[in-house]
Amino acid sequence: MAEPASGMPQAACQRVLPNPHEENLVNTVRQLDRVVIRFAGDSGDGMQLTGDRFTAETAKLGNDLSTLPNYPAEIRAPAGTLPGVSSFQIHFADTDILTPGDEPEVLVAMNPAALKANLPDLKSGGIIVVNTDEFSKRNLTKVGYDANPLEDDSLEDYQVHPVPLTSLTIGALEEHEVGKKDAARSKNMFALGLISWMYSRPTESTEGYLKKKFASKPEIAGANIAALKAGWNYGETAEAFAVQYEIPPASLAAGTYRNITGNAALAWGIVASGVASDLPVFLGAYPITPASDILHELSKHKRFGVTTVQAEDEIAAVGAALGASWGGALGVTTSSGPGIALKSETISLAVSLELPLLVVDVQRAGPSTGLPTKTEQADLMMAMFGRHGEAPIAVVAPQSPSDCYATMLEATRMALTYRTPVMILSDGYIANGAEPWLLPDMADLPDLRVDFQTTMNAQDADGNDIFLPYQRNPETLARPWAVPGTPGLQHRIGGIEKADGTGDISYDPANHDHMVRTRAAKIAGIDVPDIEVDDASGNAKVLVLGWGSTWGPIGAAVRGLHDRGIDIARAHLRYLNPMPANLGEILGRYDKVVVPEMNLGQLALLLRGNYPGTDVVGYNKVRGLPFTSNELQDALEEVIKNG
Amino acid sequence: MADVKLDAPKLKAKDFKSSQEVRWCPGCGDYAILAAMQSFLPELGLEREKIAFVSGIGCSSRFPYYLNTYGMHSIHGRAPAIATGLATSRDDLSVWVVTGDGDALSIGGNHLIHALRRNVNLKILLFNNRIYGLTKGQYSPTSEPGKLTKSSPMGSVDAPFNPLSLALGAEATFVARTLDSDRAHLQEVLRAAAAHEGSAFVEIYQNCPIFNDNAFETLKNPESRDEALIRLQDGEPIRFGDRVVVQSGYGLEVKNASDVDEKDVVIHKSDVDDPAYAFALSRLSGIELDHTPVGVFRNVKRPTYDEGVRRQVNEAATGVDRKDALDRLLHSGDTWTVL
Question: Is the pTM of the predicted complex or chain greater than 0.90?
């Protein structure tokens, strides 16, 4: 079933406003097909945890879901201020969905700053659950409210539930052996309990989680669980909440699912790559937002033969990975834009050495520090060309959080088969967003084992067996991988141009020209699958072509157009270098190709250069946030109707 | 580092020569170091394939091309980082880094100090000629203040590094100095470095006949060397010419032997745990080389980084069926099944 263009519940399950005059209040259960909820509070209020737990509860129920965490770069911005607001949005439904939702229908606001920062996004008529305890004169002034918005008519377009969350939580925890401060800190669990009741989510898994998380502080675990239950009970008994909602499970493909973020899926894809190739994995990394979680995750998986080195800097991180690759490991480095810039010289060396190397760029808004916790797709040109000399590498991009797993395996296949660096372009949206993932069957794990060179591979003029480190596989143009320790194959490699075949230093002009062209031909010849087009009616004149994390918003927009009977074709690029062999033919079928990107037109520029004659129309925004499906739908419709 | 194999076939110096034509300037100190290395390597008792040389950029960094071992001529300053990856992932190799004063102390300073503090099992040979040779004669981070070069026509105003002081500040576990022209001493130091478990840092004073000729002449000329060169010997009093080294304030100083009671002469011990002693030794000579100790300044034991990393991985990975473990990892935590 298609995702409705509107973020609101369908007519059949309209929300019923509580009637304050109703005598015998009986909780009504209403069915919804989808909801978008945003939890917002101060960065110290635990909103990410609250959202994560609600997500886990929702996943358990079998809804399809998509999440969008949004938090400030500062670890603790000044309390109660607008820059300190942290939020977590979840979209869940009884159908398959593609995005975390354009506009929330429910806003949980833990303080005035959270209300003020998030209200403009809230759907008209939406629900606001607000912590009234924080609406003091001082807190209101801090964010520029002249009057208390809970007391004037500024929120009359919304259904406001004023709840003294802090004092109710403290009251509920009177019997517990925790101080007032610790009790107040549990208010996020009270809010979670209340929202869990409203949307009929079970809380057992969160109780289990809290017991485990605070195993060494049982009194804190107990207080949090009590707050969670108090929140649930408050929903059930308070007269203000007359309606409870249910969102039935989605009918997804059969199989076992789990919820996964992009960074976790990427880390597990690296683990799987080691298993599939039967190689030890060696990660060199330096902490950087939003890539650090990959380092954290891989550091936990040493049992897979994964070595993680937290290097002294980005350059050392990629250097150590390359050194390990030389020694026969699967060398990986993970970073974000500023770090990738620092690694550029070493990636060029890897191009010259023709060794496998996986380089993960979790893109964030730049240039420079930019908006380090916000998403962007502006590193495509750096991935393609951001090196010195002619230094082509393979480039791939996952399209959703769970897709990171399969994309890593593909990147590994390319790196090992063609002995080349491969850049994996994730971004902050994919990295921190989560979605249900149909777990792959181990029987489908590809066989990525490699043949190291162990014997001589040529003869000299006198008929003696010799080893030529740059003698190429005629099909792949890959050179032999003869690792140190292999008897008889001692050889020297380096950044100076090498004679093809022998690998000896060569300053010969013709050889350099030959080597530059050969390295380019090797990358251009990488085997990548054809791109598929979704052109259901066959009548579309316009193709929308995206790459990376825009997959969800573009897909939702295209569904909306199709539902309204508007023809549009759709394709999504996973392989950015080389591009699929059939791409030119596909582009040639359409009058116009719309390319939505969270940059100022980088893929569009590549397409115009590679496929001249294609009428490429860019749709570009760099706001640090993913596209909404509504804005894309409008933009696509505009091109279809008006050219 | 790979264990020495006593029953290995005895290789000769010529077995370690590669087919490549050596292309340093005539008279370059690098020739002497290369010859000393080639004749020393058989002593390791290792097969050639178990030895890897990694270099950065600069004249010295051409070194790996001329040795019939595995070798990588990498990028400027980064050899210690690349070698860290190799040495950490491969416990069966003997990994050597060849670098210069610009490569190790200027562009690659960060990697050098971090390799040393981690105590990665690398043998780092720093060829110090106090000049940039490959780029044709700019001052380096070890050049003397006031030096006239193409990039300092009015004299360099840079304060130089003392490479040994820097290495000791980074808590290097093995620190030594030797001379390109003294093959016996050079090989003695290489021998001690090779036997050391962990990072071994060896500064080799190396003459650049083109851009900084005779930079170390004070230590080589028979007329001056006895007054300037201090040959450190473990367990022996530190004396040279008619001078001795004694404690002074927080450090050490040189005195005339005739002015000092014999029992006050410092007995050299490279295994003193406190790096302050070796640091004081490194401060005896300034840039002017007036009292220059050579030999092993410091040689202490400390757990090595690569061994520690491998131990954790091996402990965790022993007996694990990776494919089965991957399946369990994917299914860990909250999962649900759709029928």
Answer: yes
